[in-house]
Amino acid sequence: MASLVQHGKSRAAAAAAAARERKPRHGARAAARSPGKPELGRRQLAGRLLLAACLLAPVLCICAARLLSPLSSRVSSGDGVYLAEGNHVSSDDAGAGAGVLSSLQRGTMDGHGPPGPIAPIPARFGADPVRSSPELDKEVKSSNPENRTDLDNKSGIEGETVSSAKSGFPPENSLMNFRQSASYIEVPKPKSKVYCDNKSKDEGFPYARPTICQMSGDVRVSPGSSSITVTMPMQQSVEGLHVMPYARRDDSLLPLVTEVGIRAAASENDAPKCSISHDVPAVIFSIGGYTGNFFHDMSDVLIPLYLTSFRFKGRVKFFITNYKQWWIQKYKPMLRRLSHHDIIDFDSNKDVHCFQEVILGLVRDRDLILRPHPMRNPKGYSMLDFTRFLRHSYGLKRSRSLVLGEEPGKKPRMLIISRRGTRKLLNLRQVAAISRALGFDVTISEARGNLKRFATMVNSCDVLLAVHGAGLTNQIFLPAQAVVIQIVPWGKMDWMATNFYGEPARGMNLRYLEYHISEQESSLAQRYPRDHMVFKDPMAIHGQGWNALADIFMTQDVKLNLRRFRPTLLQALDLLQL
């Protein structure tokens, strides 16, 4: 029995020893399966390197492709403008397809090339180093330091030397022979084209529209000689054409606006050598003429400039003739939104600027009016679009006027624009008093001083009241549904009042009222007897021309009959309740 017990103890001890020997081997296998921290770090690093290699591979492939590419011809960032070729034609004989802007719009917005079997490859223009007006858009920087300084449209095929041992390409000698022969091959140059609309008229409106010319291809602008040269072999028909780039046609403008000539060059050697090349279109216009008057600033320059250039979305260069620094500074917020490039003073610049696309002059509709038109305004810009553009330019907050009753206790604000010269409102204080008595919060101000500050004041109001004149142009800053009250002087001024301010107000979604004064409310009653033609036949004065009309009817002052005027104020209150 003792021996059996001893034998059992011996077997148990042996089993325990075997177990102890197996445990380290089991732990070793577990340790082998569970890597330590150094090994884990090495695996993570390897994974990261693999991920980085995957991300860099496409970039390296692209870089290699660029290095190995045999073609280095570059395409300009803007599509060419494809206009009527050769002779300058008018809208009357151009047909439906030759509108002022129709072909221009097709070239620049739809991306379609010119007709024909071969679409020309436009030359790549370099960056734009010109900074003639440093106060505008200082943040705009040149994006490409390598400029082409001559616009000869030579687009030879270039290649890179490639080792045949590394690439499997033909031997190097063969490739070099190909490059030498290819260097003499020229890609077809884009045809230069000119289209001028110089006979456009507005039916029912007494003014002819101004001439506007659009050029594409090899176009060289020379401010020093007030000229534009277009390379057009065998096409000399534009020779001698001169354009006043101001958006109103008027014989009185001749000494006030600089003319710009257009000439054709038979070859590139006959054209002036480019000193600066641009990769954006150019618009050349004048701020001479009648500018300085707010009505003409808007109707003759800024609204036509918006219609002409807004579609470029800032990628356009402005050349300004009859340059006035104070004018540029006054309207800088609008100009900066229309062009992201510095303005060039056309009167003092001596460089030769090369473009693929140039517009000389501005597209015009009517005074303070924009309407859809298949050729002049194919994008359908409206005065509502323009007023929205103004609100963004000047940071105006109100887009809608007060509706009476929406905010209990809040009075509608009225701005009465006063005048210092002619057509003064002689009893202005009494007009303000009766307006306050009817419930208006009245402010009186001249349309002068800082434009942004005055625009903000106008935008804060719900009613604008003024005697016929440029001050009413400030209705462009009113919020929608506001009320405009025009006091129309004596002398059959109905047509001027309605077309210059009434119709534009409706086009801006404003409510419009007219108050026609009687002869007793005019200062003309103290200057002329009652049997004078001024009272008996005012249209006879109109028949004598603008000078007679301006000397008589435009110089009168107004003293309102408050009892007669009161219903107009009540009507304004009614309109604000709608």
Automatic annotation (TrEMBL):
Segment forming the signal sequence: none
Matches recorded under InterPro entries: Glyco_transf_61_cat, Glycosyltransferase_61
Places the protein is found: Golgi apparatus membrane
Skewed-composition ranges (Basic and acidic residues): 134-157
Region (Disordered): 1-39, 104-172
Keywords attached to this entry: Glycoprotein, Glycosyltransferase, Transferase
Entry membrane topology: Single-pass type II membrane protein
Limits of the Glycosyltransferase 61 catalytic domain: 294-485
Keyword Glycoprotein annotated: yes
Pathway the protein acts in: Glycan metabolism
Record keyword Transferase present: yes
Classification via Pfam families: Glyco_transf_61
GO (cellular component) term, any one: Golgi membrane
A GO molecular function held by the record: pentosyltransferase activity
Name of the protein this chain belongs to: Glycosyltransferase 61 catalytic domain-containing protein
